[in-house]
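Researcher: Checking consistency across runs. Here is Putative endonuclease Z1 domain-containing protein again:
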Amino acid sequence: MGRWFGYRPGYEDLPRIFMPEERRRWFTHLATVEAEMRREIDRHLTERGTLSIWR
C-alpha cells in the first residue's frame, strides 16, 4: 500500500499533527493564553491608545 506524502490543492494550510495528550493540553492552554493576551492588548489600545502605560 502506498502513501501520499504531499499537499493536495486546497489542503496546504491544514497539516495534521500527532502529539501526546499532555502536549496537546499544553498547546491548547498556551494558545488560549495568547488569545486572551491579544484581546487585552486590543482592548487597552482601544480604551487608552498606547502601550507605554499598559500594566
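Researcher: Does this match what you'd expect to see?
Model: One thing to look at in this run: The chain is about 50% helix and 0% strand.
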